[in-house]
Amino acid sequence: MTSVNKKRNPRKNQVQKDLTMETEDGTQADRPKKKIVKKRSAVVRRAAQYGEVNEAMLKDFVKTTIETGVKNIATEFVALKMETQSCQKPKTGHETHPEKNRYKDVYCIDETRVVLKWPEDNPNDYIHANWVKINGLNKFICTQGPTEKTIDDFYRMIWQEKAPCVVMLCNIMELGKKKCEQYWPESVDGAMVLMDGKLTVKITEAAKEVEQNILLMKISITDDKGAVHAFEHWQWKAWPDRGVPEIPMAVFRLLIRLKTASPIIVHCSAGIGRTGSIVGLEIALVKFCAGEKVILKEIVKDIRNQRHGSVQTDAQYLFMHRVLLALAENRKITSPEMSVFVTEYDKLIATKNG
């Protein structure tokens, strides 16, 4: 099997290349602007591929969110969670392979699970991972953080799907507990040999901080026939378990960097809380750019239908609203009522993040 890295064609609606422009990629609310003459940065090019956010739909979202209020949104999530928490869909793979599940009460439903087909002589096709669609396309794979027993399967999945990037939203250790096994070599000089030599994993570029608390590392996988697949590994180190990050717009800056990638493998520890939140925000942004009404309750319900239990807490649900309000603020859509909402949000999140 060989791996071919194809260049993706830019979308037709990209802005012209030769204009003098500000880096208005929709993420400048919490960082200084830079002026670029004639040459656009990679982040700006990727931002352009989203298309324009529909201002009317964004204003409608802001109005509804502010009118609902922080407490009512939190209450809305509790009702949503109760409505969708019971897992009635078949989960045969999950039940048959308990040793491959990090948490026994985080279910992997059969309907959308990633089926491992490589290598053909391996009879085990199970990994705790589900496809999540955007506009009918398999854009995301949401999965649990690898355990010691599932690192091989994790790399089988990357290799099989030729995933161009992996997004890690947790740390190896959090509050004294292991949340994810380290699934990459200790250094650029080292290597991980998996599956009795079928795959070898190496770091080609050491991790570097490209945004505050966001690291980028480049990794290559080589099979026993010499074929190579390379991917980017992004780690967000400042998103607390069951909590939320302090900088809302950092989400969009990360998503903009990943925009052309597909499928994107996303994991935290369980692969539902932090993972579901970032996937939900991507879906919301796509809807805004398509001129569609954004109702986060419906988005979360849809994600939970594909990756059971996605978005675990009211804090994460509120954070999704706060991020979209930050997007509106960046587009100069503000009001005194929004300031009140943000103040109430900050007070509540301070108690949640401890």
TrEMBL record:
Residues 73-327 form the Tyrosine-protein phosphatase domain. PROSITE patterns: TYR_PHOSPHATASE_1 (PS00383), TYR_PHOSPHATASE_2 (PS50056), TYR_PHOSPHATASE_PTP (PS50055). Pfam families: Y_phosphatase (PF00102). InterPro entries: Oocyte-zygote_transition_reg (IPR052782), Prot-tyrosine_phosphatase-like (IPR029021), PTP_cat (IPR000242), Tyr_Pase_AS (IPR016130), Tyr_Pase_cat (IPR003595), Tyr_Pase_dom (IPR000387). Signal peptide: none annotated. SMART domains: PTPc (SM00194), PTPc_motif (SM00404). Residues 1-37 are annotated as: Disordered. It comes from the Eukaryota. This is Protein CBG20279. The lineage of its organism: Eukaryota, Metazoa, Ecdysozoa, Nematoda, Chromadorea.
